[in-house]
Amino acid sequence: MINVGFYYRVKKGKTDEFEKIFTQVTKKLMEGNTGIIGARLYKSVEEPNEYLIYTEWNSVDDFKKFMMSEDFRQTTAIGKEIIEGRPTHKVFKEFTEA
After folding, report:
1. What ranges do the domains of the chain cover?
2. Residue 35, pLDDT score
Protein backbone atom coordinates (compact mmCIF):
# COMPACT_ATOMS: atom_id res chain seq x y z
CA MET A 1 0.00 0.00 0.00
CA ILE A 2 1.11 3.57 -0.67
CA ASN A 3 -0.21 6.98 0.31
CA VAL A 4 -0.21 10.06 -1.90
CA GLY A 5 -0.74 13.63 -0.79
CA PHE A 6 -1.94 16.13 -3.40
CA TYR A 7 -1.47 19.79 -2.45
CA TYR A 8 -3.63 22.53 -4.00
CA ARG A 9 -4.14 26.26 -3.72
CA VAL A 10 -7.64 27.11 -4.95
CA LYS A 11 -8.63 30.47 -6.45
CA LYS A 12 -10.79 32.69 -4.25
CA GLY A 13 -14.47 32.03 -4.78
CA LYS A 14 -13.81 28.53 -6.19
CA THR A 15 -13.53 26.47 -2.98
CA ASP A 16 -17.11 25.15 -3.10
CA GLU A 17 -16.58 24.03 -6.71
CA PHE A 18 -13.28 22.36 -5.78
CA GLU A 19 -14.92 20.47 -2.92
CA LYS A 20 -17.79 19.34 -5.16
CA ILE A 21 -15.38 18.08 -7.83
CA PHE A 22 -13.37 16.21 -5.19
CA THR A 23 -16.54 14.39 -4.09
CA GLN A 24 -17.50 13.51 -7.69
CA VAL A 25 -14.04 12.27 -8.67
CA THR A 26 -13.60 10.26 -5.47
CA LYS A 27 -16.96 8.57 -5.94
CA LYS A 28 -16.10 7.63 -9.51
CA LEU A 29 -12.68 6.27 -8.51
CA MET A 30 -14.14 4.22 -5.67
CA GLU A 31 -16.78 2.72 -7.97
CA GLY A 32 -14.20 1.75 -10.59
CA ASN A 33 -11.43 -0.82 -10.44
CA THR A 34 -8.69 1.79 -10.00
CA GLY A 35 -6.75 0.44 -7.04
CA ILE A 36 -7.67 3.34 -4.78
CA ILE A 37 -8.49 2.37 -1.21
CA GLY A 38 -9.73 5.75 -0.03
CA ALA A 39 -9.42 9.51 -0.22
CA ARG A 40 -9.89 12.35 2.25
CA LEU A 41 -10.00 16.09 1.73
CA TYR A 42 -8.33 18.42 4.23
CA LYS A 43 -8.65 22.20 4.28
CA SER A 44 -5.94 24.38 5.83
CA VAL A 45 -6.93 26.11 9.05
CA GLU A 46 -4.60 29.05 8.41
CA GLU A 47 -5.08 29.34 4.63
CA PRO A 48 -8.69 28.39 3.70
CA ASN A 49 -7.82 28.25 -0.01
CA GLU A 50 -5.20 25.53 0.54
CA TYR A 51 -6.16 21.86 0.44
CA LEU A 52 -4.59 18.45 0.88
CA ILE A 53 -6.12 15.40 -0.73
CA TYR A 54 -4.80 12.34 1.09
CA THR A 55 -5.21 9.09 -0.83
CA GLU A 56 -4.41 5.43 -0.21
CA TRP A 57 -3.61 3.07 -3.09
CA ASN A 58 -3.02 -0.65 -3.37
CA SER A 59 0.29 -0.08 -5.18
CA VAL A 60 2.53 2.42 -6.93
CA ASP A 61 1.49 0.86 -10.24
CA ASP A 62 -2.20 1.54 -9.53
CA PHE A 63 -1.38 5.17 -8.75
CA LYS A 64 0.72 5.53 -11.92
CA LYS A 65 -2.12 4.08 -14.00
CA PHE A 66 -4.47 6.68 -12.52
CA MET A 67 -2.01 9.50 -13.31
CA MET A 68 -1.97 8.36 -16.96
CA SER A 69 -5.74 7.84 -17.21
CA GLU A 70 -8.35 9.84 -19.08
CA ASP A 71 -10.15 10.47 -15.77
CA PHE A 72 -7.05 12.21 -14.42
CA ARG A 73 -6.64 14.28 -17.62
CA GLN A 74 -10.26 15.42 -17.41
CA THR A 75 -9.86 16.34 -13.75
CA THR A 76 -6.72 18.38 -14.41
CA ALA A 77 -8.42 20.17 -17.30
CA ILE A 78 -11.23 21.29 -14.99
CA GLY A 79 -8.71 22.14 -12.30
CA LYS A 80 -6.90 24.67 -14.49
CA GLU A 81 -9.89 26.98 -14.11
CA ILE A 82 -10.01 26.82 -10.31
CA ILE A 83 -6.46 26.05 -9.12
CA GLU A 84 -3.77 28.68 -8.52
CA GLY A 85 -0.37 27.64 -9.76
CA ARG A 86 0.75 24.09 -10.24
CA PRO A 87 -0.45 21.46 -7.75
CA THR A 88 2.11 19.09 -6.27
CA HIS A 89 2.00 15.57 -4.95
CA LYS A 90 4.18 13.34 -2.81
CA VAL A 91 4.15 9.54 -2.64
CA PHE A 92 4.75 7.81 0.70
CA LYS A 93 5.27 4.15 1.41
CA GLU A 94 4.54 2.69 4.82
CA PHE A 95 7.64 2.25 6.93
CA THR A 96 8.06 -1.17 8.47
CA GLU A 97 10.94 -2.12 10.71
CA ALA A 98 12.92 -5.22 9.84
Report:
1. 2-93
2. 92
Question: pTM here?
Answer: 0.84
Q: Is the pLDDT of residue 41 over 90?
A: yes
Orientation of helix 70-79 relative to helix 15-31, angle to 10°: 170
Query: Which residues fall within 8 angstroms of residue 48, CB to CB, at 6 or more apart?
Result: 15
CATH of 2-93, one of 3.30.530.20, 3.40.50.1110, 3.30.70.100, 3.40.30.10: 3.30.70.100
Per-residue pLDDT for 52 more than 90? yes
Burial of 29 (0-12, 13-18, 19+ CB in 10 A): buried
**Bridge partners of residue 51, in order along the sequence:** 8, 43
